[in-house]
């Protein structure tokens, strides 16, 4: 993940952390925040108004209390009108009297015993296919239309519904059980001024809860006090976002001192309505007549664990289902695979086909009735009139028009399986099977992180075989996200001699206090020259170095933790923080003797060359993706105020005063260039002394901004902009980000497979390009096109130029290829975030931003937004250009731009996109892409939670796409086509027979056989083949990445194949139907016997058809295919020994004749010969890649030993144990 | 080594590493047949070799069947012709119970017919598979006297006026075929054996031996034959044959068997009671005398189909062989992979 990740970790140092001498102004704070509220309400431009100038200190500071409270109450009402939740501290009765807040019991189960049946059925019938079959089953219940027996017509649907209901019920039962365990856990709650144990489910909003170390939080609560005197609590959020490092939360000074068991605390917390943003919280607390603002650093959320803090008190603000953890509990949005989308198109063709068949039957029936209308009364087999009643009336005859209509409906019932309901079930089952094999694949298991492949979405397996674009995050995905401090440029001097000291000699910096040795946990290689410089205090250079390292040690949110070791005298200092860059920097500072020892909410202690120094942290402007920098305002031991800033070079050089020492700035810029071209991540560090007046100005506006309830982030950003100006440059740091194992090889294979790889990174252009080279994304053979502009017009211009150049290059290379057979010129596009901003519609971005911030909207809404905005022509140009490029590197991209780019390619190119990333900043991209993959690495679980598939390493993409993706696609495509064929052939046989029954839809095949056809006779083989069959072995697929193109070009499932299949179906149904018809024409055969012949003929036909296409015969395949045929014989026999059915004993009569077997044999061969012949001619004279590769496998197999299958490609498959 | 194994064992306990098995890694032993040219040609030729003899034998079997087919429905009514008047006259003739419907047909045996000679009646254009018709029956009623009133499914032929159930009910039974044939040569009558013409299974299980016809054909309109009320249904073999509804609109049903041989050129005369009304719609009645072989009656279709398919397969085998000789392609040559082809051609 990029350094952008900081934007999600809002560590705000609130006014509570301010030194005491300014604390008395807290009563005035409220009034200034009210002003900002008024302005917000009136004009909506509050951001502009809150600046240094606006904070007219004297009047605010010394305003009277009475007036103040009046204004306070007025604003109070106003906010009340807006959506706020009022929590009375320690007064759950009052809190819960007006609004019924959720209790703390949770219910993740969907159903109760009573609601299970209706709700589950309701949910299941959301599928259109089910409604279709329900309607048909209902139609069949009408006496006029009863074609099948009632039971027979309901059975398939009931079976499907039952299976799903049992599955849902079991899952829900497990959820209920775990809910029950959760709800009955105990916690200490303050009741009548004493802490008592209470069940979690009985806790209410407004109660005070006491949590001890290592306990799990039962609900979302605002911290009141902790065991730590400064009010710090450490929490671990593994359950919430998977991050294992400790985070700090702060109790307010106003409440920290109170002991609720002795004195009653009362107050009011006004906070936002429950929402799912786990990184945001805004509230005010009114306590002892003071108004205190609360932010995300004051709340601890359900599911977190308290660590390193012996106890903490908090007040429940959100409980049960309204906690942020529960609100975030919903899974990833469901996507639909492309194959399924295409399949739905073919289903529409099939429905048209069905309507055509029904129309033919009903119209012919109408014509037949018309022609025989005079004969109907006396026809023995029709008997229009019913004479049994005294009044002779028409018997089941509703007139010509109605009869046609009824016959139409009846034919829909009879031909219903033209729309294959079983296909939906089979697809689900096959996907489960495929997921099983993907999860179990030990080549996608990562030993280091002990994690398997995870399938989080079960309905897009086959999309993995059709990916055309891969969008990859860089940090943590391509690289390991283990940062190592490499070198630094300080005061215009480059110190990069880190390797001078060998690893063995180096003991690293350590600190001795009272006989104990403190040592940083991680060792950093140090530059000896810089080390000696850092010890000089009084030279200019030494001061510079001093300031630089103070900045590294202070300007961060790292928390030092002391870890005991086996040696009682030695203690390790572990720096816990959210940004690995910051960790690396703090370790580096420690190595040079600037060791961060302690951090509380108000101050930090840094040990400088053995001397403890206390710095007051007066304010901290956290990182955001706009500023791309963070700053800290320190009150130094010498009573001066300093602001330290560190950030990305692009934005830092805008706020650095070049006039101060232009040489240093120049030299630093040169060094930055050097570092980033080595592929290092750079940060620029700057500082400024604040005068007393500047400081006060900053302080008042900072307080006002940080207590604001609405628009706080924007206000704070404004304050930060104002203080982060005219800095003097201290230097720059360079951190190495190591590539993950196997990344270059994986990228190369992806490129060979014709997959366009896009890397989207927040890094600078030079860094990105150098990482591009080291990861083999870029090669020296490629032509690079760099787009790097600042305005929309110039952007458009350079895109146009690039397009022209592109065309020229491709035509040139075409020409040269013809001449010399040289390889195709590959083009790489390198584009930066600023240009992208201009290219991607700003409006689009904003909307994506909104969507992303809440990320509660569904993917389809995101799509509609981008479609709405995609009319921009410049967008189109980017698309045109990028579609010509084999590689695209986007640098300096914000998280939301990532989603924008993915959306652009997905909608414009109509190709399959895959996004892979590991951090919270990739969530939008992962959800936007057709397939989203989360790297379950060391960053949080946000990406994994949003992803469809999760794995541990980027290189697993190769086996995932080339092997599993290919197989999944081949299997699923074949299965869909086969299912269409299988059902259509049966329907056509029924249809042909209808033509010989004066179009009355009598079926020779019994009702039960019609029903069992897709359930027993033919279901299992297709599932087994769909799960197990492999067209090519793993080795072959990895050896020839180009084979992946089959899926990209949609070779296994497309319109042409569909129509060919339908033609084949037509022929096979003709053969299966007409051979017995003509062989038995004019004989004394009865309906049931002939029906049995047709049933068995069709079943044998479709099973042999499948057998012809099976590539690998496992014993399971044999069992399924031949077993199905045997099962059919058994079922037909069973049906024919039931004396209440008209077909009693028919099978035994007809199977006793030789003619029966001759027909069966003839049908099978005659029906399949065309398919066989077409197949072999294509295989021999127009072979596709898969066919050649398969032969290759066979030829090599016979040439070499049989172990070829097990032998692995050493690059992707480290030897297995 | 042993300590290393121990370590790996303790790791594997905690590890989520998927357990290796050939199944989970999709490496089960499999047979991978591939269609080599040899296999293809062998398959096609063997299909030809198997099919043609079967076709020939079934053709010869069909050839050996001796069949006499005589259409008598036109000849056994007073008037012929297509106009309305003729039709009305035919109808009034057949519907009138008092007219003499005896009709004598003289036939010549073309070849020697060995016994058993099957006597069939054949109806054309009679839809015994019509939906209304096939559903109008009650198998429960036929099986047991307990379900005598179980006639719901038999409409419109379920009850007579005073709500007494008809046994056997339903349109199928009601429309029972009732033409009769008596065959004689010049010298003496040829007995037609009407025993065991129905399926044994029908007699034993499907139709009850204690179910007797009741109220059958008691009421207009009368669809066909009447039943002897003293015989149980299981012994009414004509009914049983009729109730096995035919699959196709042109069908034969067994009338009886002749247990003696008929010599070639022998003249036989058939006395037909032409009772059954097929004149109200476009249908035909025929009398069929036929011997039988393994393919049943006279039908050349299967033989011809087998010979055609076999022939086509042989032809394809030759075509494939030729094309393969002219334009051979080595198996599994990587040069044929599409990306290799493209670079080679350009």
UniProtKB/TrEMBL annotation, chain A:
ATP binds at residues 473-475, 582, 623, 646, 681, 761-763, 892, 898, 921-922. Its EC number is 7.6.2.1. GO terms for cellular component: membrane. Mg(2+) binds at residues 473, 475, 918, 922. Its cofactor is Mg(2+). Residues 1-18 have a biased composition (Polar residues). InterPro entries: ATPase_P-typ_cyto_dom_N, ATPase_P-typ_P_site, ATPase_P-typ_TM_dom_sf, ATPase_P-typ_transduc_dom_A_sf, HAD-like_sf, HAD_sf, P-type_ATPase_IV, P-type_ATPase_N. Keywords: ATP-binding, Magnesium, Membrane, Metal-binding, Nucleotide-binding, Translocase, Transmembrane, Transmembrane helix. Residues 1-45 are annotated as: Disordered. It catalyses: ATP + H2O + phospholipidSide 1 = ADP + phosphate + phospholipidSide 2. The keyword Nucleotide-binding applies. Residues 944-1183 form the P-type ATPase C-terminal domain. It comes from the Eukaryota. Its main location: membrane. One of its GO terms (molecular function) is ATPase-coupled intramembrane lipid transporter activity. This is Phospholipid-transporting ATPase. It comes from Abeliophyllum distichum.
TrEMBL record, chain B:
It comes from the Eukaryota. Keywords: Membrane, Transmembrane, Transmembrane helix. It holds the Pfam family CDC50. Its main location: membrane. InterPro entries: CDC50/LEM3_fam (IPR005045). The chain crosses the membrane at residues 34-56, 305-326. It is found in: Membrane. Residues 136-159 are annotated as: Disordered. One of its GO terms (cellular component) is membrane. PANTHER family: ALA-INTERACTING SUBUNIT, CELL CYCLE CONTROL PROTEIN 50. Belongs to the CDC50/LEM3 family. This is ALA-interacting subunit. It comes from Abeliophyllum distichum. The lineage of its organism: Eukaryota, Viridiplantae, Streptophyta, Embryophyta, Tracheophyta.
């Amino acid at each position: 993940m990029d350094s952008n990740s900081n934007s999600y970790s809002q560590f705000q140092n609130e006014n509570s952390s301010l030194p005491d001498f300014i604390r008395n102004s807290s009563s005035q704070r409220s009034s200034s925040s009210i002003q900002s509220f008024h302005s917000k309400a009136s004009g909506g431009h509050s951001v502009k108004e809150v600046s240094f100038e606006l904070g007219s200190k004297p009047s605010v500071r010394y305003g009277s209390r009475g007036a103040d409270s009046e204004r306070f109450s007025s604003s109070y009402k106003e906010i009340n009108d807006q959506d706020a939740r009022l929590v009375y501290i320690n007064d759950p009765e009052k809190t819960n009297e007006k609004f019924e807040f959720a209790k703390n019991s949770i219910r993740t189960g969907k159903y109760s015993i009573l609601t299970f049946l209706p709700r589950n059925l309701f949910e299941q019938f959301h599928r259109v296919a089910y409604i279709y079959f329900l309607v048909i089953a209902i139609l069949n219940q009408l006496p006029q239309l009863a074609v099948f027996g009632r039971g027979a017509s309901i059975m398939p649907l009931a079976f499907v519904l039952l299976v799903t209901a049992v599955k849902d019920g079991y899952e829900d039962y497990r959820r209920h059980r775990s809910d029950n365990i959760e709800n009955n856990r105990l916690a200490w709650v303050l009741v009548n001024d004493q802490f008592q144990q209470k069940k979690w489910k009985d806790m209410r909003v407004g109660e005070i809860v006491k949590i001890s170390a290592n306990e799990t939080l039962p609900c979302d609560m605002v911290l009141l006090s902790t065991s730590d005197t400064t009010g710090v609590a450490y929490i671990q959020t593994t359950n919430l976002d998977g991050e294992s490092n400790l985070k700090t939360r702060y109790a307010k000074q106003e409440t920290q001192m109170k002991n609720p068991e002795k004195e009653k605390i009362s107050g009011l917390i006004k906070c936002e309505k429950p929402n799912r943003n786990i990184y945001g919280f805004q509230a005010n607390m009114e306590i002892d007549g003071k108004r205190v603002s609360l932010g995300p650093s004051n709340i601890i959320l359900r599911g977190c664990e308290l660590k390193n803090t012996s106890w903490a008190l908090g007040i429940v603000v959100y409980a049960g289902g309204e906690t942020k953890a529960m609100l975030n509990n919903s899974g990833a949005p469901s996507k639909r695979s492309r194959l399924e989308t295409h399949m739905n198109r073919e289903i529409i063709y099939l429905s048209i086909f069905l309507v055509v068949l029904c129309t033919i039957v009903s119209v012919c029936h109408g014509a037949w009735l018309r022609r025989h209308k005079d004969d109907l009364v006396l026809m023995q087999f029709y008997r229009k009139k019913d004479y049994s009643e005294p009044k002779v009336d028409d018997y089941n005859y509703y007139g010509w028009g109605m009869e046609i209509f009824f016959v139409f409906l009846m034919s829909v019932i009879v031909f219903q399986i033209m729309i294959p309901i079983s296909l939906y079930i089979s697809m689900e089952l096959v996907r489960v099977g495929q997921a099983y094999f993907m999860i179990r694949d030990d080549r996608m298991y990562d030993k280091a992180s002990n994690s398997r492949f995870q399938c989080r979405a079960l309905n897009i397996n086959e999309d993995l075989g059709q990916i055309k674009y891969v969008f990859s995050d860089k940090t943590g995905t391509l690289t390991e996200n283990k940062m190592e401090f490499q070198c630094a440029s300080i005061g215009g001097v480059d110190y990069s001699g880190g390797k001078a000291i060998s690893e063995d000699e180096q003991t690293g910096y350590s600190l001795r206090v009272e006989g104990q040795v403190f040592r940083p946990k991680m060792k950093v290689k140090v530059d000896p020259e810089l080390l000696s410089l850092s010890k000089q205090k009084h030279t200019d250079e030494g001061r510079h170095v001093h300031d630089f390292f103070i900045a590294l040690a202070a300007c961060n949110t790292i928390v030092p933790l002391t870890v005991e070791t086996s040696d009682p005298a030695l203690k390790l200092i572990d720096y816990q923080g959210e940004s690995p860059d910051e960790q690396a920097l703090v370790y580096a500072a420690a190595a040079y003797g600037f060791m961060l020892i302690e951090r509380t909410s108000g101050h930090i202690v840094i040990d400088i060359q053995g001397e403890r120094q206390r710095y007051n942290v007066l304010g901290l402007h956290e990182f955001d993706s706009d500023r791309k920098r963070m700053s800290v305002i320190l009150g130094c031991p010498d009573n001066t105020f300093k602001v330290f800033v560190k950030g990305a070079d692009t934005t830092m050089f805008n706020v650095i005063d070049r006039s101060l020492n232009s040489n240093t700035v120049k030299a630093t810029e040169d060094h930055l260039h050097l570092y980033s071209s080595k592929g290092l991540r750079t940060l620029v560090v700057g500082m400024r002394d604040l005068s007393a007046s500047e400081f006060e100005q900053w302080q008042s506006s900072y307080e006002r901004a940080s207590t604001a309830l609405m628009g706080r982030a924007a206000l704070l950003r404004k304050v930060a902009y104002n203080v982060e100006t005219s800095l003097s440059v201290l230097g720059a740091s360079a951190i190495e980000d190591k590539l993950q194992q196997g990344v270059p090889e994986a990228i190369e294979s992806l490129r060979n497979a014709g997959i366009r790889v896009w890397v989207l990174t927040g890094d600078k252009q030079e860094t990105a390009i150098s990482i591009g080279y080291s990861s083999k994304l870029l090669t020296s053979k490629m032509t690079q096109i760099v787009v790097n502009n600042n305005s929309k017009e110039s952007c458009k211009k350079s895109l146009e130029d690039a397009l022209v150049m592109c065309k020229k290059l491709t035509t040139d290379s075409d020409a040269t290829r013809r001449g010399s057979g040289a390889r195709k010129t590959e083009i790489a596009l390198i584009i930066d975030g600023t240009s992208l901003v201009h290219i991607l519609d700003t409006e689009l971005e904003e909307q994506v931003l909104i969507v992303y911030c809440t990320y509660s909207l569904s993917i389809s809404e995101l799509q509609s937004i981008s479609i709405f905005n995609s009319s921009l022509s410049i967008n189109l140009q980017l698309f045109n250009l990028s579609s010509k490029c084999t590689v695209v590197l986007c640098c300096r991209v914000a998280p939301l731009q990532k989603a924008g780019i993915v959306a652009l390619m997905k909608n414009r190119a109509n190709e399959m996109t895959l996004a892979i990333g590991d951090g919270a900043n990739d969530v939008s991209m992962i959800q936007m892409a057709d397939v989203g993959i989360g790297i379950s690495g060391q960053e949080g679980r946000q990406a994994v939670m949003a992803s469809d598939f999760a794995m541990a390493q980027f290189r697993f993409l190769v086996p995932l796409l080339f092997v599993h993706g290919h197989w999944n696609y081949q299997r699923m495509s074949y299965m869909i086509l086969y299912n269409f064929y299988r059902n259509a052939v049966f329907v056509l046989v029924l249809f042909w027979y209808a033509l010989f029954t004066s179009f009355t839809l009598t079926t020779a095949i019994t009702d039960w056989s019609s029903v069992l056809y897709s359930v027993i006779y033919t279901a299992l083989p297709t599932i087994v083949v769909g799960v197990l069959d492999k067209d090519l072995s793993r080795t072959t697929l990895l050896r020839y990445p180009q084979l992946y193109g089959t899926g990209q070009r949609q070779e296994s499932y497309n319109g042409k194949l569909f129509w060919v299949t339908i033609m084949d179906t037509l022929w096979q149904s003709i053969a299966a139907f007409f051979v017995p018809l003509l062989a038995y024409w004019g004989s004394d055969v009865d309906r049931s016997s002939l029906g049995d012949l047709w049933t068995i003929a069709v079943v044998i036909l479709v099973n042999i058809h499948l057998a012809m296409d099976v590539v690998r015969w496992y014993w399971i395949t044999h069992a399924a295919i031949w077993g199905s045929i045997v099962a059919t014989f058994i079922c037909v026999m069973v049906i024919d020994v039931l004396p209440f059915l008209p077909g009693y004993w028919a099978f035994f009569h007809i199977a006793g004749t030789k003619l029966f077997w001759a027909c069966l044999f003839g049908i099978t061969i005659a029906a399949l010969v065309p398919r066989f012949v077409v197949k072999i001619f294509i295989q021999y004279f127009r072979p596709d890649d898969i066919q050649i590769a398969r032969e290759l496998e066979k030829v090599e197999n016979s040439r070499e030993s049989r172990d070829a299958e097990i032998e692995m490609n050493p690059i992707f498959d480290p030897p297995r144990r | 080594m042993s300590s290393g194994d121990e370590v790996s064992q303790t790791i594997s306990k905690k590890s989520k590493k998927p357990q290796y098995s050939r199944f989970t890694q999709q490496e089960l032993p499999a047979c991978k047949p591939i269609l080599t040219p040899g296999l293809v040609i062998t398959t096609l030729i063997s299909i030809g070799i198997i099919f043609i003899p079967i076709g020939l034998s079934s053709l010869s079997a069909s050839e050996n069947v001796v069949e006499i087919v005589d259409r008598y429905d036109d000849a056994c009514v007073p008037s012929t012709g297509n106009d309305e008047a003729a039709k009305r006259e035919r109808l009034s003739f057949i519907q009138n119970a008092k007219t003499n419907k005896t009709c004598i047909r003289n036939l010549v045996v073309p070849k020697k017919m060995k016994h058993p000679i099957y006597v069939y009646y054949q109806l054309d254009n009679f839809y015994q598979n019509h939906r209304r018709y096939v559903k109008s029956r009650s198998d429960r009623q036929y099986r047991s006297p307990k379900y005598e009133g179980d006639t719901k499914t038999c409409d419109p032929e379920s009850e007579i006026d005073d709500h007494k159930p008809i046994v056997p009910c339903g349109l199928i039974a009601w429309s029972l075929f009732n033409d009769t044939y008596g065959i004689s040569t010049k010298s003496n009558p040829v007995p037609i054996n009407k025993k065991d013409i129905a399926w044994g299974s029908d007699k034993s299980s499907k139709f009850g031996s204690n179910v007797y016809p009741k109220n059958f054909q008691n009421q207009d309109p009368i669809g066909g034959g009447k039943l002897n009320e003293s015989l149980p249904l299981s012994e009414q073999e004509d009914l049983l044959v009729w109730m096995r509804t035919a699959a196709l609109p042109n069908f034969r049903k067994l009338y009886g068997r002749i247990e003696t041989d008929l010599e070639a050129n022998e003249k036989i005369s058939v006395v037909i009671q032409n009772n059954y009304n097929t004149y109200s719609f476009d249908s035909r009645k025929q009398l069929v005398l036929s011997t039988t072989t393994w393919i049943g009656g006279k039908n050349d279709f299967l033989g011809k189909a087998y010979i055609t398919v076999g022939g086509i397969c042989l032809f394809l085998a030759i075509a494939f062989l030729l094309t393969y000789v002219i334009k051979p392609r080595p198996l599994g040559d990587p040069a044929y992979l599409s990306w290799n082809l493209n670079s080679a051609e350009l």
